[in-house]
């Protein structure tokens, strides 16, 4: 910025950033006064800005510029969030428990379906006469007429015809007669040598 003619000093600006007023009229401004009521502002100088005084800070530097950590709005917002969470806690817990129950029931239904399939397969097997005959031979020791039955008793093989009872050895009583005789002897009704 060039210095205006007729000014002293070459700086052209005051330390505060404003031009210094010399008190002399500007060279391009008219030298006669401007009549009142005219709007020509060519000769009017703006009023200098007044320095704004700030009130002194209390409590050290930066104390007044800090905001409080907890404001009323923050407390209100936290309270509303807390009430909302407490209100939704019950339904959310019920929803999660219902989902867990549905999952458990679905797994139980799948297990029951598998059990039904197994039982249906077992019914189909039992309807087969060959399967029934095989199970009767294995579990109940049944034999068809004409087959030989081998039964192992105390490590000795005993053979016999199917459907026949072996004849007792002479001098041996059948088990039921031996039982009746032992009861009679215990009561004292009969002598053991009889």
Automatic annotation (TrEMBL):
<keyword id="KW-0812">Transmembrane</keyword>
<keyword id="KW-0131">Cell cycle</keyword>
<dbReference type="Pfam" id="PF04977">
    <property type="entry name" value="DivIC"/>
</dbReference>
<feature type="transmembrane region" description="Helical">
    <location>
        <begin position="74"/>
        <end position="92"/>
    </location>
</feature>
<dbReference type="InterPro" id="IPR007060">
    <property type="entry name" value="FtsL/DivIC"/>
</dbReference>
<feature type="region of interest" description="Disordered">
    <location>
        <begin position="1"/>
        <end position="65"/>
    </location>
</feature>
<keyword id="KW-0132">Cell division</keyword>
<protein>
    <submittedName>
        <fullName>Cell division protein FtsB</fullName>
    </submittedName>
</protein>
<keyword id="KW-0472">Membrane</keyword>
<keyword id="KW-1133">Transmembrane helix</keyword>
<dbReference type="GO" id="GO:0051301">
    <property type="term" value="P:cell division"/>
</dbReference>
